[in-house]
Sequence to fold (333 residues):
Amino acid sequence: MDPIYIDYLNAFDIDALDLSDDEILKAIETSLGAQGKGETVIEPRVHLEPDASFHGHFNVLRGYVAPLGLAGIKVVGDYVDNYKLGYPSEFGVLNLFDPRTGVPKAILDATAITDMRTGAVTAMGAKHLARKGSKVLGHIGARGTAYWNVRLLDHLFDFDEIRVHSRRPESRDAFGAKLEKDLGKKITVTDNWRDCVADSDIVVEASRLNAPEPMLKTEWIKKGAFVVPYGTMSAVELSLTDIMDKLVVDDWGQCKGGKLGSLRAHVEAGKLSEQTLHAELGQIVAGLKPGRQSDDETILLWHRGLSLSDIALGSALLEKAKAANIGQRLRFA
Fold:
């Protein structure tokens, strides 16, 4: 048997590669289009909760992207109290394999990948589902994925006003300061949900609640807005879906099951179902179903996180790393 080597990219390697906004978006758009065309396999995520007292759990995401010739499995921990230790809330590892033989191909630190690909799916959703002239963003949450939500959305829309809020003052103030530095524009930091999201053109809810609580009120959402709630614990009212002209998800297979997710109660109540669902985002990206068709449409996107996005971003990082001679090769067998 010929020697088998694994490419390894750690957090420092991924930081050094410094993927551009356009490189990130291109990778995610490619994977979404492949999903829409039926060129992928995605298994609903599964969870491992070691002990409820730890206030966290592991997500295991699995998928295959035929155009990339890769299968992948990502394991990511999601622990809400990690900030007390100076850690990000999520740590992850992405494993990539040859889908024809099962031979391991790569191991990547998936912490930054998770943040970037989540923000990219939010942005790709907005590209197809938000009003083209959207100029006000209201964003709840300040964790790692939040940064990439705002950065990549602003890359596409160049907002006139960006409002942010999170529960802890030190968290939201630091978030606002980082965004101001990196985006070169004023960020409005609010001390409450209403001032952050009311009448915004695009509303993103990425809160970190310990238990479901309807913090985002349906009455604050203006007609024609694009709304993206994706917190692990629901922070929206049951009436939110009632005002939507289109309901879109990243993958219905994983959105319709499980106990976690921002619209779990809406699925259980029948408000989000195969009958009320407009499309999966990949179908829209692939041109198989329409996205926004008028400025008056109020549209919701719920994305739970796609293994396909992790695989696509991992693949893009590996290609750039090879060209830049960054990373390590490990002997496997």
About this structure: The two ends are 9 Å apart (CA to CA). The chain has two domains: 5-113+308-331, 120-305. DSSP finds ten helices and 15 strands in the chain.
